[in-house]
Amino acid sequence: MAWSTREIADLAGTSLRAVRHYHEVGLLAEPERLSNGYKQYGVVHLVRLLRIKRLVDLGFSLGQIAGMGDDDHHPAQALRTLDAELASTVEQLQRARVELALILRHRTSTDLPPGLVPTAGMSEADRSLVAVMSRVLGSQRLDAYTELLRSATSDPTDGEFDELPADADADVRSDLARRMAPHIRRIRKEHPGVGAPLSGDRPEDRLAARTAATAMQELYNPAQLDVLRRVRELIGDT
Q1: In terms of domains, do 155 and 182 share one?
Q2: What is the C-alpha to C-alpha distance for residues 238 and 233, in angstroms, rounded to an integer?
Q3: To the nearest whole number, what is the mean pLDDT of the chain?
Q4: DSSP codes joined into one string, 161-221
Q5: Which of 7, 141, 185, 199 has minimal Cβ neighbours within 10 Å of its Cβ?
Q6: Measured between alpha carbons, how far is 1 from 40 in angstroms, rounded to an integer?
Q7: Residue span of the structural domain in which 85 resides
Q8: Residue 177: how many CA atoms within 13 Å on its side-chain side?
Q9: Which residues form a coiled coil (predicted)?
Q10: For residue 137, which of 218, 122, 129 has the smallest C-alpha distance?
């Protein structure tokens, strides 16, 4: 019995293009040709094509299949390796689904890491700062920020700070800082891990401090930055 290229592709449940590609990469031997030039495939080609198709469906790459050679025995080690890879992929997909559920439930931003859920009314600048700092903070401080965001309560001065114009005069800035200080002091007391200074001799500490300074300069206007400086002076964080 002999089949044409189209017939063997149909029998194997694949495409003409796939069969030709398997020839090109050396996975499937070329069959003999008739006098008219048409290829004629035999049972050995069909069995080989079925094996290739089966391995591809299981998730093996063509390179991995080529590495197995023509040995049609059960590729136990290759199967175990692929199974481990698939298990890792499944775990990753499950984590992604959990994260997607959190994003949908809390309507949070996709630029924030898992667990960091912004509080209601958080400004775009605050959310951007959290997203940036989440990349450079150590796990302990990041856990502290996560807990803060989960339990933080709003303060009347939050909106005033967000809407503070860049040309706000000194009296307005001083008054706002004075009224913000008790709220910030209470946060520092309830979440000491958040208030720890971003300083130290370790490279990661210096990177976090530089990143925070750069991000704040770009995200907040001069009046807001001055208010934050005044707040730090009032609560003794200099």
Answers
A1: yes
A2: 6
A3: 83
A4: HHH--TT--HHHHHHHHHHHHHHHHHHHHH-HHHHS-S--SSHHHHHHHHHHHHHHHHHS-
A5: 199
A6: 9
A7: 74-107
A8: 21
A9: none
A10: 129
160-205: per-residue pLDDT in tens? 999 999 999 999 999 999 999 998 888 888 877 766 656 666 787 7
The domain tally of the chain equals 3
Q: Please check whether residue 13 is in contact with residue 3, taking contact to mean a CB–CB distance below 8 angstroms.
A: no
Taking the model in full, what pTM does it have? Answer: 0.55
89-101: string of b/e by CB count within 10 Å (b at 16+)? eeeeeeeeeebee
Between CA 38 and CA 32 the distance in angstroms is: 9
Alpha-carbon dihedral 44, 49, 51, 55, rounded to 10 degrees: 160
Q: Do both 50 and 138 map to the same domain? A: no
* Pair (140, 82) in one structural domain: no
Helical segments of the chain, H only? 5-12, 16-24, 43-58, 62-68, 76-106, 124-133, 139-151, 156-163, 170-190, 192-195, 203-219, 222-234
16 and 99: one domain? no
- What is the Cα–Cα distance from 102 to 106, expressed in whole angstroms? 6
Round to the nearest angstrom and report the end-to-end CA distance of the chain: 88
Query: Nearest-CA neighbor of 100 among 120, 114, 89, 121?
Result: 114
153 and 54 housed in the same domain: no
Band (pLDDT 50/70/90 cuts) for residue 74 is low
Tokens of 103: 């994003």
- Which residue, 76, 68, 77, is CA-closest to 26? 68
- State the amino acid at position 184 in one-letter form: I
